[in-house]
Amino acid sequence: MILEVCIDSYEGALLAQKYGAKRVELCSALTVGGLxxxxxxxxxxxxxxxxxxxxxxxxxxxxxVYSDADLMILQKDLIGLSNANVKGIVFGCLSPANELxxxxxxxxxQAAKLLDLEVTFHRAFDFVNEPQKVLEQLIELGFDRLLTSxxxxxxxxxxxxxxxxxxxxxxxxxxxAGSGVNASNAxxxxxxxxxxxxxxxxxxxxxxxxxxxxxxxxxxxxxxASISNLFK
Length: 232
What we know:
Elements: E1 2-7, H1 10-18, E2 23-26, H2 39-45, E3 52-56, H3 68-83, E4 88-91, H4 102-114, E5 118-121, H5 131-141, E6 145-148, H6 159-169, E7 174-178, H7 186-190, E8 196-200, E9 202-204, E10 217-219, H8 221-228
Helix pairs in contact: 3-4
C-alpha cells in the first residue's frame, strides 16, 4: 500500500521518509485544507531522494471556483513549483454549480504535463454532484490520481463511495483515500482496493500564540509510525 503524508514542513518530509512513505503532499496552511507552499520549502523537501514531493496548487482558502485572473496565478505558481523540482501538483477547479471547470482543469493539466509533472485532483471532488460523470471527465483530462473522502467528512464514512470509485475507475486513474485516516481504520480503507492512503502528519502545538498569529503545527511522528507499521 502506498502511503502519502500531507505535510507543511521539511521536518514533516524527513519523518515521512524515515517511515517509508512513497510521497508527501506539501502544503502551507493545513488548518484551511492546504494552500500552495513556499518555493523555498518545496525545493528543500525535493532534495530528499527517497520520497516524491507533490505540491498543493491553491493560492487562497475557500471554494474551488477560480476566475481567469486566478488561473494566471495558478499557472505561474505551477511553473515556480516545477522549478523547485517537485514531482507533481495537486489541484481542482470547479464551477459555481459544483461541476468540473473543464477549461481551467485542462489548462493546468496540459501545463503540468509539458513540465513532466504528475497531476492529482484533490478533494474538490467531494463537492461535485455527479461523481461518476466527473470521474470519467478526470480520466479524459489526463489526471493521474484522485484524492477523495468518498464525499463524506472522513474516508471511513465515505468508504462505500470510495469502493464504488475504485470499481468505476477500473485502473484508468489511481484512487487515493484521505481524510481521517488513522491506525484504527487504515487497513479497512486499504481493503477497498484504493491505490494509496493519504493522511496528515501534523498536530497543533497547544502553546498559546498571542496577537492573532495562529497556532504552530508540528509533525506527529507517532501517527506516521503507527500507520506505516501496519503495512510493513
